[in-house]
Specification:
Layout (H helix, E strand, L loop, with lengths): L1 H12 L1 H17 L5 H9 L5 E5 L7 H7 L4 E5 L3 H13 L5 E4 L2 E2 L4 E10 L2 E2 L5 E2 L8 E9 L1 H4 L6 E6 L5 H6 L2 H7 L2 E6 L3 H13 L1 E7 L4 E4 L9 E7 L1
Parallel strand pairs: 1-2, 1-9, 2-3, 4-8, 9-10
Antiparallel strand pairs: 5-6, 5-7, 5-8, 10-13, 11-12, 11-13
């Protein structure tokens, strides 16, 4: 039913207008505290007025609250998919978020190009699930070829990156592998959505070796709890804080 309603909205409004309106609706829902309580906690614990990176900014649903809650900071939002990026630009302009800088690229462990896919389910396009394309997976969707950069090459000397939000649909390990020097110099607080697979275990190991402790957010007490790495730990959002 949700896919059918989404399809009707995309067809009736046009895809670009659907993205814009859905972003505004989601931003207001977050600001009302109705969902994404983990993300709201991440916003609260960011310190200072440095640079906050929104990696996988999509259509601006997280970039806008970051910009509003930290007006003295600079939000650098990275989104490679063209339609998502256009919606992100439109949202930033509409909300007059003057402290947001946009990057129409993907981030990874090397410089080059990356093939990505925006999945299609039930005739509706799933912009929030856009991800790196896997050859032979047989997934239906719109294919894109996007520029790929290492974060270490974008910020070779920066020492004022205070926080990083990453949501790139199981590509987080590649992003972090290309960000090691940035992480070592800046030690930003990291908020990442991680799937339940080997990549997540490798992310825990990589960040532990750099000097990070990993946490989950307990919704009952609204506090961070240390992660016990074990089989069956569900997919979700994780906090990584320098020791």
């Amino acid at each position: 039913m949700k896919n059918f309603i989404r399809y009707l909205l995309q067809k009736t409004l046009s895809f670009k207008n659907y993205l814009f309106l859905f972003s505004l609706y989601s931003i207001r829902t977050i600001e009302a505290g109705k969902y994404e309580r983990e993300f709201l906690h991440f916003i609260k614990i960011i310190k200072g007025n440095g640079i906050i990176l929104d990696i996988g900014a999509n259509i601006g649903i997280t970039a806008a609250p970051l910009a509003k809650h930290h007006p003295g900071a600079q939000i650098h939002a990275f989104e490679p998919i063209s339609e998502n990026f256009s919606a992100l630009q439109r949202v930033v302009n509409y909300l007059k978020l003057n402290n947001v800088k946009l990057f129409n690229i993907a981030l990874g462990s090397e410089d080059g190009n990356l093939k990505m896919i925006m999945p299609v389910r039930g005739n509706s396009r799933m912009q929030g699930l856009s991800k790196a394309y896997e050859e032979g997976a047989g997934e239906k969707g719109v294919i894109y070829d996007v520029p790929l950069k290492k974060l270490d090459h974008i910020y070779p000397f920066e020492t004022n990156i205070t926080a990083i939000k990453i949501d790139v649909e199981n590509f987080e390990l590649e992003v972090l592998r290309g960000s090691v020097e940035v992480l070592k110099r800046n030690k930003p607080t990291i908020y990442a959505e991680l799937w339940e697979n080997d990549n997540r275990t490798k992310v825990f190991e990589l960040l532990k070796n750099i000097g990070y402790n990993s946490f989950t957010f307990d919704l009952q007490s609204e506090t961070l709890q240390p992660v016990t790495i074990r089989e069956g730990l569900p997919a979700g959002n994780f906090f990584f804080i320098p020791a």
